Amino acid sequence: MMPTPTRLIPAALGGAAVFGAGMVGGGLVEAHAFVTHHVDVPVLAPGAAPIRVLHISDIHLMSRQGDKMAFLRRLADEEPDLVISTGDHISEGRAIIPLIESLTPFKGLPGAFVFGSNDYEAPRWRNPAAYLWRSTAGDTEHARVALPTGHLRERLLGLGWADLNDATARVQAAGRTIDLRGTGDPHIRFDHYEQVAGPPAPDAELTIGVTHAPYRRVLDAMVDDGLPLVLAGHTHGGQVCLPNGRAIITNCDIDPERARGLHRWEHDGNEGWLHVSNGMGSSPFAPYRLFCRPSATLLRLVPAE
Fold first, then answer.
1. Which residues, by range, are in coiled-coil regions (predicted)?
2. 60 and 118 in contact (C-beta within 8 Å)?
């Protein structure tokens, strides 16, 4: 005997509720399943020895997140030659000291950072499900709580790292001269690339571009200047992805296929490598990830073929 339609509807709704609860639970668990990716990037001259660059991003640290702090400390085991952070370090002011304590194993290593919007203002509440369909680009409503950005900058500088917000720096890593240039966060239009623009210096072995949000205007300008590698974060790799790992939303104007990982970026006949970090965290008001584990990446720069 076939069940009646009135019996089928509650069963279907119950099944959907169980499935939804399972997805939410899985997303909350995955948000703590930290992983380190290892990627080779062919940007060095033939015969050059590799350079190990640790790319971290979007930590969004809160002072209670001990597992995230432990993951940060363990990253020192990767023995990088250079550390680059592409912003959104904190979600509250009292996370600054725990952040720096977690990064202390890198003190003395060459490093550099830029800021994201969440390094200036605490995240504000929004419908957690809105992340699936709406970008925050162009939002005019500001967060109510300003973060102690100056204190964060001072502490990061205390690690010996360079501030690349609309600035440049030259570092020695693995015995090589590397130039770095960065911008303020394009997502909130703090970027002024014209202040650092220009072709790479001929006496540097490599020039790397650094920005928080991978907006096309910044990526285009950097590859047009001849930068072979650009590092960015912000997208969280999509944060909530399809089962194949494809991002649903990028929260900027980059295409979803390049919301995370290593890709070629082309503009007007110029091209370079772009690496977008998955990031390690998320807003405290959307503390989930799905098919997109929180991560850091050890980039091994190797000779181009």
1. none
2. yes
| pLDDT tens per residue, range 238-294 | 999 999 999 999 999 999 999 999 999 999 999 999 999 999 999 898 899 999 999
| CA neighbor of 24 nearest in space, from 129, 141, 145 | 129
Measured CA to CA in angstroms, residue 303 lies from 48, 171, 209 at distances of 6, 19, 18
Give the residue-averaged pLDDT of 4-17: 48
DSSP string, 242-265: -TTS-BS--SSSS-GGGSSEEEEE
Q: Which domains does the chain have, with CATH numbers?
A: 36-124+145-303 (3.60.21.10)
Beta-carbon-side half-sphere exposure of residue 35 (alpha carbons within 13 Å): 11
CA distance 174 to 185: 29
The 8 Å CB, 24+ separation contacts for 91-94 are 91/60, 91/61, 91/62, 91/118, 91/122, 91/123, 91/281, 91/283, 91/284, 92/62, 92/63, 92/122, 92/147, 93/122, 93/147, 93/148, 93/151, 94/63
- Summarised one tens digit per residue, pLDDT across range 22-63 is 444 567 899 999 999 999 999 999 999 999 999 999 999 999
Residue 134's pLDDT band, with cuts at 50, 70 and 90, is low
* Residue indicated by tokens 């997109």: 292
